[in-house]
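Bench log. Compound arrived from synthesis this morning; before running ITC I wanted a structural hypothesis for how 2-acetamido-2-deoxy-beta-D-glucopyranose sits in the protein. Inputs:
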Amino acid sequence: MPEQLRYDGRVVVVTGAGAGLGRTYALLFASRGASVVVNDLGSNRHGDGSSTASADAVVQEIRQNGGKAVANYDSVLNGANIIKTAIEAFGRVDVVVNNAGILRDTSFMKMTDAQWDAIHDVHLKGSMKTTQAAWPYFIKQKYGRVIFTSSNSGLYGNFGQSNYSAAKLGLVGLANTLAIEGAKKNVYTNVLVPTAGSRLTEDILPPDLHDQLKPDLIAPVVFWLCHESCAENGSIIETALGWAGKCHLVRSSGCVLRQNLSANVTPENVQENWSKVIDMTSAKRLNSIQEATGELLGFIENLQSENSSSNKVDQVLTNNYNYHDIILYALGVGATVQEPNDIRYLYENADEFAVLPTFYVLYGPIGCMSTSILQDALPNIQLDPTRILHGEQYLEVCKQLPTEATVETRFKVQDVLDKGKGIVVLVQHDTYNVADGEKLSTGQISIFIVGASGFEGKRTSIHTIPTVDPPARKPDVTVTQQTSVDQAALYRLNGDFNPLHIDANVAAIAGYQKPILHGLCSLGFSTRHVLHTYAAGDPSLFKSIKARFAKPVMPGQTLRTDMWRNSNRIHFQTSLVETGVPVVTGAYIDLWDVKTEVPRANLCSGKENLQSDAIFATIGEQVKLNPDQAKKVNAVFLYNITVGGKPISEWTLDLKNGEVHKGKPKSGKADATLTVEDTDMVEIALGKLNPQIAFMRGKLKITGNIMLTQKLKTLMETNKAKL
Ligand SMILES: *[C@@H]1O[C@H](CO)[C@@H](O)[C@H](O)[C@H]1NC(C)=O
Ligand SMILES: *[C@@H]1O[C@H](CO)[C@@H](O)[C@H](O)[C@H]1NC(C)=O
Ligand SMILES: *[C@@H]1O[C@H](CO)[C@@H](O)[C@H](O)[C@H]1NC(C)=O
Ligand SMILES: *[C@@H]1O[C@H](CO)[C@@H](O)[C@H](O)[C@H]1NC(C)=O
Ligand SMILES: *[C@@H]1O[C@H](CO)[C@@H](O)[C@H](O)[C@H]1NC(C)=O
Ligand SMILES: CC(=O)N[C@H]1CO[C@H](CO)[C@@H](O)[C@@H]1O
């Protein structure tokens, strides 16, 4: 138990404390040792009338409970008087909770100046006046906490509340600046966005939940935010129903609307680029005005260099391909006749014969090796093939890719970046169908040239397509597949003949023990895994892919693709099962649509996909070794193993006959059925997840004779040691 948070010796001012939230705050602060100034004008919630009764009642209640409080009846516009009350009664002030407010709604059209001013006076100016009166004391004593009460009407807007929402968001701006001005003096300002019961919430929430909009569930959040041990500053905290979360503004990565510094921006440029301006997929929070402006300056820096390197296409390559190339590529990236979804990539007469969408990534490395594009971009650098690495790759498919075509790929160096330890060259490669001139795909390859540097060029580029880290949670789905020792030898036939992937001597010069697998080959494996899992194998759902190649893979190693779904974006990371080392990172595939109806993982039969299979194998050995223990349980359990909630495999633990086998019981019915996610099964077996807790959290579902499962515990305990 942490020590109780206290306010002994502290003086807290709460405005509008005669009722509702304010009253609850005042009572809580006082109950934990604070001396409280209970301010209330005594008007009703529409701001009319005045009486001293409500503040007095709260003061009396606090005193009856043994606390210290005084009343103040001033309007918050006379904030100086409120603070004066604190100083006169208690000799100091430490916390100001600006809570007073009134509400009167009509539509914007009908609003008068007086209605606008009344709202701004109480909410914005009143909070300012009271806080400003306390500020000199805060600065002098190097301690102070301020709360402004905003509203989701301000953050999100609300019909009929134009004056109110404007004033409420005004408080956010005020807090943003006060947080900066007070930071060095330990004076922290935060905005609270409480949702208390009101007519609005009555309409939205079901009645039983509506009763949960209690001030008691909000007050502890304010209490913590104002405590001396809380370092939060300049934040917006939303809270209600016993929940709290932080809010902030984000900005899209936007779009430069002109080609160079001497070009103008026309309204049509804006129109044409609008979808990029408002594309929030890579939106981020900017933490300060310096950071926000700094990023813009970065764009201008890029524009300047754009001035010199013209927009011309640097190289063009023409290729023909047909079913032969498509199948070879698919085999190169692990497609197998054992996986029904792969047949479409392997058999030209299959109904849905198709190109694996990452096929066009092939043209990136081929173009960079077979043309002078890199040398032209780096005229003063001696290029050594063993020092050239494929750093990152992006590919977007614009149209359904034909299974046979003559295509033209246009290459353009977008930027050359000095990364200190080497140079990064960004090359855009766009592929067009020669037959009709239509663009089929656009790609970007980032080439890393190890050791080359010192030209003191810029470090960032607007052309960079960022990788995105996966969510912090455990992967939603995992698929593993072993590569063949001949994987690189096979993959080369797609046209990337870099000897690093086949010649032991070249590999040694580059510092590898053995020839390494092509990064794009691993990427092809993971692309298949993602499409199998989230697109029901349908390649036409593929939109784009981005990935960073972090570490080499040796042919023969086993790839594990960990996947996380975030709407239509599937984040993934590929790691080596043998070493646990991540090899493809920051990666994602964007899909047009997600299709998960078909349970996927069991279709890759022959490949070991489920981690729980190994667990059951071990349990099986254990049962054979300890037949007596198994006999004691004398029951049949069916395990229903799921991945992403879909049943994937079944195992029978038959302790009557001392047998563990895949599938349902060979005769009769199971005494109990246990449904559990593959990953949770492993956690339970490893002793990392307590089965009882798993059961209570709904991670382990049991039907049938639950009591019998208690007896399983001993068996599992013995097992843990073996795993
Ligand atoms: C705020 O404006 C609305 C009209 O949008 C008005 O009905 C309401 O009375 C105003 N509030 C106050 C306190 O004047
Ligand atoms: C608030 O104060 C903290 C602690 O000094 C500081 O880290 C933070 O940057 C400040 N916030 C703002 C918005 O200035
Ligand atoms: C700058 O952009 C304009 C408009 O796109 C173009 O006409 C002009 O040639 C460009 N100038 C340079 C120096 O690239
Ligand atoms: C960009 O190009 C224009 C037109 O050639 C030139 O006037 C201008 O000085 C250049 N700007 C920079 C920063 O090089
Ligand atoms: C296995 O789990 C799935 C998903 O929870 C469920 O729909 C199915 O009924 C379960 N099967 C058995 C035999 O309990
Ligand atoms: C980044 C981007 O798409 N820029 C485009 C903005 O619009 C102009 C035409 O108005 C295009 O030339 C740019 O490519």
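What the model suggests: The two ends are 35 Å apart (CA to CA). The pocket of 2-acetamido-2-deoxy-beta-D-glucopyranose (ligand 6) is lined by residues 255, 268-269, 272-273, 276 (CB under 6 Å).
ITC booked for Thursday regardless.
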